[in-house]
Amino acid sequence: MNIEYNENNQIEMTLSASLDVNIEVFESIFENWGDLVKKRFELKRADGYVDIFILYIDGLADNEMVERTITRPLLYEWKNETANVNSIFSSETEAVDMKETADVNDIVDALLCGDTAILVKDYEKAMLLSTKQYPVRSVDKPEKESGLKGPRDSFTENFRTSTALIRRRVKDPKLKLIQGTLGQRSKTTYGLMYMEDLARPYLLERIKEKLNSFDIDAIFDSGMLVHLIEDKWYSPFPQVQTTERPDKAASALLEGRVVLVIDNSPEVIILPTTFNTFFQAADDYYNRFAVGTFARIIRYMAAYLSVLLPGLYIAITCYYPQVLPTDFLLAIVAARNDVTFPVVIEVLIMELLFELLREAGIRLPGQMGNTIGVVGGLIVGQAAVEAALVSTVVVIVVALTAICSFAIPNEEFASTFRLLKFVMIILGAGLGLYGILLGILVIEIHLASLESFGIPYMMPLAAGSADDNIEYQDFVVRAPIFTMKNRPIYARAGRRRRYERKR
User: Fold this and answer.
1) Which of 21, 212, 362, 471 is most buried, judging by how many CB atoms fall within 10 Å of its CB?
2) Residue 57, SS3?
3) Is the pLDDT of residue 103 over 60?
4) 3-state secondary structure string, 351-413?
5) Which positions ≥6 away from 290 have C-beta within 8 Å?
6) C-alpha closest to that of 394 among 355, 321, 341
7) Phi and psi for 380 in degrees, rounded to 5?
8) Average pLDDT score over residue span 80-84
9) Long-range CB contacts (within 8 A, 24+) of 331-339
10) Burial status of residue 75 (CB atoms within 10 A of its CB: 0-12, 13-18, 19 or more)
11) Residue 96's pLDDT band (cuts 50, 70, 90)
C-alpha cells in the first residue's frame, strides 16, 4: 500500500473498520522497522472471536509493562465473555493513561513516543496506552554550573524528569505546564512552565507566538531553539538564559519568568533575561550576603578584564609606553629583546594557542581533557618563550585573561567575551586607546538597544526608574534576603511582594 504524505509530512487518513486494512496501513508506514513489535491474537467471546492487533516500538516502550498491564490481562484473565469492545480495555487492562483516536497521525506519533497501540476488528478507533520507557541517564550533579553550596542535582535529557525536578521545588497548583511539539520530523516535546499568578500575560502570548512562527525539520537541543526565538539573532550576547540547575529554574519561576523545558536537552531556557542575571550564581543566595556581593564584584571585574586586558596591553605598549612606570617598561623591553614578532602578533599567537588548547580539552574525554589543558599550557607556553616567539609578559597577560573568562558563571555568556576580546585586540593595535574606547562605546550602545521579550537588557542601568530601583538590591551588591521584599520587574503588577515578616 502506498502511503501519501502532505506538504506538512502528515498522513491524511483515518482508521478503517477492517482490521486487515489497518494492519496493512501500519505495516506500510513502518516498513523495514526491525524494532517494531507487532502481535495479532483472538479473544474468545460467547458470540465468536474478537481479533486484536497490538504494536509498539521496542526500546521506546516498556516491554514488561505491556505484558503485565495489557497482554496478560487480555489473554489469561479474560472473564467476561459478553462484554463489548469499549469495556475490554477499561475493565480488563491495568493501564491508567488510555485514550481513543481514529487519526493515523496521532497513532504514529504515539508509537514514536513509546505508547502502545491496540487495533480491534470492526472498530474504527485505536486504543493508545502509555507505556513510555526512554533510555535515559540518571540525575547527576551539574557540570557547568557547579558550586560549593546548594543542591547537587541537574536536569537530564528526559522531559518528564526535568519537569518533575522543578515541581519538586515548587509545590504550588499555580505552576502551570503547557506542552507542545516542535519539528515536523523530530516532534520534540517542549513544556512552557510558568506561575499563573506571577507571569505577565503578554509575555506568555509573545512566547507562544515565537514558538508558532516557524516550521523546522527537527529540534534536538535547547540551543537550537534559542536561535529561533531571539529577536536580534546577529547579536553576540545571548538574549535568553539557559541553565542546568533546577533550583535556578524554580527561582526564576517565582520571579515571574517563564521556563521552557525541551525534551532531549539537559538545559532549560529561562526568559526574559537581563545582562545582570548572567553574573548571578546559585551560590550567591546560599552564602552570606557579604560573600555573595564580593563574588559578584570579582565576576564583573573579571568580565571587563577578559575583554579589555589584551587590547589595553597592545595599545599602551605600542602607542603610550610613557604612561607605564619606568621599571615595568624596562622589564617589558628586556622580555622582548629576542622576540622577532610585533606585540600584536605575539598576543594573537598566544590567544589562538589558548583557544586551540581549550577546544582540544573539551573534545578529549575526562581526565585526558584536563591533562591536555594543563600540560599543553605549561609546556607549549614555556617552549614558545624559550624559542623567542613570545615574551613572558604576554604569557602572563593571556593567562590572566583566560582565568578571568572562567570566572563568569554562564559559559555561553563567557564565550561572547572571548570573541569580543579579539575585536579589542584589533582596535587596540590599529587605533590605540581611542580604538579601545570606541569599542567600549559601540558595545554599550548595542547592549542598551537590546531587549529580552520586552525587558531592557541593561536593566537596571537602563530604565531602572521604571522599577523604583528595586533591581539594584540584586545587582552588583546582593542585599540580604530579608531586605529583598519585592520580586523583580518580570512579575506582573500587584504580585510583586514576596517577603513579609510575621508579627
Assistant:
1) 471
2) strand
3) yes
4) HHHHHHHHHHHHHCCHHHHHHHHHHHHHHHHHHHHHCCCCCHHHHHHHHHHHHHHHCCCCHHH
5) none
6) 341
7) -65, -40
8) 52
9) 331/393, 332/391, 332/393, 335/391, 335/392, 335/393, 336/391, 336/393, 338/388, 339/388, 339/389, 339/390, 339/391
10) middle
11) low
Alpha helices in 100-200 (DSSP H): 104-112, 159-167
Q: Which residues pair with 242 in a beta bridge?
A: 269
* Sign of the dihedral defined by the CA atoms of residues 206, 209, 211, 216, in that order: negative
Q: How many residues does the chain have?
A: 503
- Is 54 in a helix, a strand, or coil? strand
Q: 47 to each of 44, 185, 206, how far by Cα in Å?
A: 8, 44, 57
Q: pLDDT tens digits, residue range 377-400? A: 667 777 777 777 788 888 889 889
Among 159, 191, 163, smallest CA distance to 178 is for: 191
DSSP 8-state code for residue 71 = I
Nearest to 241 by CA among 218, 203, 267, 204: 267
Residue 118 in contact with residue 70, Cβ under 8 Å?
yes
Contact 41, 128 (CB under 8 A): no
CA distance 69 to 10: 31
- Can you give the pLDDT at residue 467? 67
Distances in Å between the Cα of 120 and the Cα atoms of 3, 53, 106, 493 are: 21, 6, 17, 54
Does the N-terminal peptide bond of residue 246 adopt cis geometry, omega within 30 degrees of 0? no
